[in-house]
Specification:
This protein has 183 residues and is α/β, with parallel strands linked by helices. Helix content is 23%, strand content 30%.
């Protein structure tokens, strides 16, 4: 789906498909460099990170395995509730593994900080974070993100896996959602 298909719901496009493709390749190159000689476990956070994980995994030269987790702190709103629920847990034993959590966006950082500590407590050798987007002015906790695509302003964004009430994930760009949609 292209931005033109839902133009009345979009305030403006932040990153085009071409921007995203270039950024994913840049992140993959950094990850490849840092994980030479290691097999990293990519942990995709469902549902938003599915596009990032799919494209990042294809851009990596490093050997990796992949698993998925679903956690929620949003419900159908536009702001994190801060209460984390595991909806789908990992199938992989993390003992001694080098884990890379792959996220679409860091908003408050509360869910991600909780998730990182949870995975460390399971015996992982290392747990790093890769996020395509981060809202630095919204972060409420000290969450260390080793790989960040872009820092953005605190607007509600959609597309490339990011949704509002399960819609807009299939946009091929990242855009801000027009306020009339969620007000």
């Amino acid at each position: 789906m292209k931005a033109e298909d839902v133009q009345d719901d979009i305030k403006h496009v932040l990153f085009t498909k071409e921007d995203i493709d270039a950024k994913i390749k840049e992140l993959a190159a950094q990850i490849d460099k840092d994980y030479v000689g290691k097999e990293v476990l990519l942990v995709g956070v469902l549902k938003g990170a599915i596009m990032v994980v799919a494209d990042l995994s294809r851009a990596l030269s490093t050997h990796y395995t992949m698993d998925w987790m679903a956690v929620s702190s949003y419900g159908s709103g536009t702001k994190s509730s801060g209460v984390v629920r595991i909806l789908k847990d990992l199938d992989t034993d993390l003992t001694g593994r080098d884990v890379l959590i792959v996220e679409d966006i860091i908003d408050s950082g509360l869910t991600l900080a909780w998730l990182q500590q949870n995975l460390i407590s399971r015996g992982a050798n290392s747990v790093e974070i890769c996020a395509l987007l981060r809202k630095p002015t919204c972060v409420k906790t000290d969450v260390q993100c080793k790989y960040v695509g872009w820092d953005i302003d605190p607007e509600f964004v959609i597309g490339y896996g990011l949704d509002f009430a399960e819609r807009y994930r299939n946009l091929d760009c990242i855009a801000t959602l027009a306020p009339h949609v969620y007000s």
